[in-house]
Known about the structure:
12 strands; alpha/beta
Amino acid sequence: VIICGAVYNNNWRAFMIENEMENLPEVSVICIAYNQEKVISRCLDGFVNQKTDFKYEVIVHDDCSTDGTLDVILSYEKKYPDLFVVITEEENQFLKAANFDDIIMPYVRGRYIAVCEGDDYWCNQMKLQKQYDFMGVHPECSLVCHNTIINDLGSNGPLQMFNDWKDIHCLTEEEVFLDWKVHTSSYFFRKECYRVRDEYSYWCRFFSDYIRLCNAKDLGEVYCLPELMSVYDFNNPEGVTNVYNKDFKKKLNQLEGRITFLKEFDEFTDHRHSEVILKRLNYQIEEMNKIMKKM
């Protein structure tokens, strides 16, 4: 792992933490980037433009991009050295099925973790402050989200939203396990509720948003603020989701992965969510049958 152009190990981070205890950030923003040269600036600008009364850091992990993504990231690190921590790779870790938590978590210093991938972006300068303030008065909350704009790149129609909740909303089991009502770019976790079991790490490469959402619901309450504070580009022809949806074998593998995860999650959580998990499993099996008929 290469950080800001130099090779460090976890002992370096431990040393830094010991010497910065009085000036630790409250929030760590995690951004995963790969071959997003054309769009990543708007994502990084969303981080830089946040207005807070607390310190935060931005940890950007570039997974060995083959375009100019890393150059863009490093230009921000150079301009804002006290804000950005840049992690780069000499080999693509996704292809090696690496556990990204093992790579990134040693550099996380905040009490809270916000997430935004390189092809999404924040559109509200008060996003972090609003979620931070909410966490401060809701100790039962493991994850707080907000509404997100869906920018459909394959349509000229009006912009859509992930949900239509007008007030602060506490997500039900059904909304977490069965629906898609909140987007990754809105996630704001308590640090202790972010990392998931190592058994899920392989599938986190494909649907970490769903895994982390389910895990957060098991550990506490998941809330959604009504404000629109991020943008998700849907139907991106170069996006990973679009690529997998067009490849039946990859899509089938991903559905099988969700089934494996749900069964393991049910066991690890002592069947606390068995009823709703069974509903999701039946849905996944139906989707698999539809795909197999097309193959």
